[in-house]
């Protein structure tokens, strides 16, 4: 196929081109945010393809599933031809799943293993704690213990190694017991947790390097956040050719709390002494004002080596640092400001040009409420994941049980959902019996339903319920496997039939609080996603050729639809963000504003970024003991912004412990003396010059002075002149004697709204 090489290199600077076309075997591209690392990496993949490399022989690891989707889209634009669908591209976890599905049997992994997501893991741990009446350890709840276990696994410390390394104390003993029991329960349920996926893949590739014998190149984005296991995986992936490209930025390492290993950059240079390092120094993302302000934050880290970063854009509009009376007022101010910005610029931006980035998911709630009230459509990259929703999760669990009834976790959750007359006693009896007989709960359930074993804890309706349940599971299994209906195209109908058999609509309407319409829409969206996914599998999109090894094929007998559905369930378990529809408001084609945690915003960019909650206790967070990582987190957040950056903090906070309002202080990262002059406290004053520089940064068509003035006149607004920066508190916003965001402010000025 003819490929236009110039299309791959188009628009790159000299150093970026050098990196893309480099012959180096091992290449590290280290560079600050917005310098085009991801773009360079993407172009390098396209370059390899353009030079005839087989896409099935290239592994690309990205930080999120969304990032790999975007990368594929860009590659497709550059070279076309559908090659991008055959790349082995995804997060480390999803790549590991592909290898384990195909070759797991080689290391004795039972076929059709399930994936325990973070929620599953926490439930298992809570149950262990409850059952053994363990006191909570060091005040850690199940999620806390899970993350401790996960950290150990990420450092490849097994239970036995952990125990050996500990001085005996009652705390460490209880923790070891929980760890050991947790591993056992996962095994009994045929589940792998996220860390296991990587660890087992490591086992596989160590024992059977032939599985990756085809791999010619390995490329990794956001390398600064890889952990030790991922590093070893990288080496194994690349073992045949040692051709590796990584891109990263030590200043953006923000996953130390999850055992990311910043030392991996140096280790790599030790393991591969011929590593070539390329630095990119120009920032293409942000205005110079935003870049300087962000640098002012990161440069407070005195241990950090000095580096060159040059802005390519002009100064632009100064970042705004604003104090508001409360978190609630902060949220109101943001919503107002979004509407005002659109009004004064003649809708130069859409809602999808705007992001609100928060330190923790909890802060997102206030923002959501305000967006809903002001009818600003938004999507959430924080908070509850789509697949974790109360109305979606049970459907997912039914499918998991149908594919693997030995998945005790999923089974326990759906046995009485919807209600089948089973009480706590029944549950206890079923799991005790399974434990005693060392068999799965499903086996006991079947026997109980047949009346083969006596169960004192189950009522008569309970027995009938169990019988129905067993029949529904078996019937659906049969449908998936039968010749007539066992085709991936039929998966949608099979799921619909299942929902009817369990009267799911009634369950969603009666048992779950909240709007039925919204909830049912999520269920339908879930089914649609499953159907779409299975269709794509049929169409062969994203079907990667992995090499056949000596022990060919997975011995597990699977129909095509079982296989397709299995892949879908794995994808759902790995989905890192809520990916369902979350549009609230009018949705008139102006896109959705993004509300995200800072962690989820990594690698992304928006013309306008708001960072509320910049106070000591939130950032740096009171529970974090790594001050430098907290600073990097703020740096990551600030460097997402292209043209306008808003930082804010409340002057008072509700303190949960004392139940009283308490003073809150501006984040010490922003309070540094030399930073404040770089920011303005009100505004920004959107001048024509501001709008002009703005359009340039975003490479958008620039509105003329007349256009802007006309919009303002049409809306009857005087904002352009009225919004002035002033220390005089009586000179206020649009002639109001009171700041519109003060507590108690009643009628809202109609900045963005159309006036009839
Ligand atoms: P981060 O560290 O935040 O992940 P990054 O280094 O990966 O940032 P990219 O996301 O690749 O940076 O690029 C940032 C922006 O700069 C993108 O919009 C990209 O298209 C643009 N860009 C990159 N290189 C160039 C260039 N040579 N000319 C113009 N724009 C560029
Ligand atoms: Mg990037």
What does this structure look like?
The chain has 29 helices and 18 strands. The protein is an alpha/beta fold and 756 residues long. The strands form five sheets. It has a six-stranded parallel beta sheet with strand order 3-2-6-7-1-8, sandwiched between helices. A six-stranded parallel beta sheet has the order 11-16-15-12-14-13. Helix 25 links the parallel strand 15 and strand 16. Helix 3 crosses helix 4. The structure holds adenosine-5'-triphosphate and magnesium ion. The site of magnesium ion has 3 residues, from helix 3.
Given the helix and strand composition, which structural class is it?
alpha/beta
Largest sheet, in brief, is: 6 strands, parallel
Number of strands: 18
Catalogue the ligands: adenosine-5'-triphosphate, magnesium ion
- The end-to-end distance, rounded to whole angstroms, is 58 Å
3D shape: globular
What is the strand arrangement across the widest sheet?
Answer: 3-2-6-7-1-8
Estimate what percentage of residues fall within beta strands. 5-15%
Radius of gyration: 28 Å
Task: Provide the residue-averaged pLDDT.
Answer: 83
Our count of helices gives 29
Q: Runs with pLDDT <50, length 5+?
A: 551-556, 577-587, 716-756
Range of helix content = 40-55%
EC number: 5.6.2.4
Family: Belongs to the helicase family. UvrD subfamily.
Binding site for ATP: 31-38
Catalytic activity: ATP + H2O = ADP + phosphate + H(+); Couples ATP hydrolysis with the unwinding of duplex DNA by translocating in the 3'-5' direction
